[in-house]
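REQUEST FORM: STRUCTURE PREDICTION
Request ID: SP-0412
Submitted by: Lab K.M.
Chain count: 1
Length (residues): 177
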Amino acid sequence: MCHIIKLAIITFFLVGCSSLGGFVESRAPDEKFIDITGGVDRSFSYKFKVEYRTTTELNQCTTYHLALGKRIAQQFEFDYYPDIKGSTYSVRLPLQELEPNTFCNWKPVMAFLCVNSAGKEPTSCTSIFSFRGVQDISSVTTIECTKSNFCSDSENNIGSGAINDFNRTYQVDIVAK
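STATUS: Completed
RESULT:
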């Protein structure tokens, strides 16, 4: 019986401690950010999301993916709701919500736009920016969303909007298709 209790305690600590490695919320999340503004179609509800991933391959910074048969980076997401006034919106996406200087080295990797029908929680998400260390977007991005809540950019290259210029404003217009 004592052996079973010891095993249960060890299992609890191993499972409990292996969740998010090096996960420390930053004291200065707005030190690195992007502001997004633009026109908005009021037939949808919106939120933006920033995905962070670990960049260190230590076991406590990765998770074993059974289907892939290998360890992959851990990830965590933060949601942000835009301030909508009439037919325009604005939102600040902090890019340092997680402290980057931990042993897991958390980094923001992608920003998403999530939509749903007006009045409903946004659940259908599409990547709009990646933070890959290059800058290859136009000055204005137009995102087209269908009634089935699928969005893509008007030039059909969604997900390739790589940016590396931070602490500035980007224009993303959201229209119904």
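NOTES: Confidence is low (pLDDT under 50) at residues 1-18.
Reviewed by: T.R.
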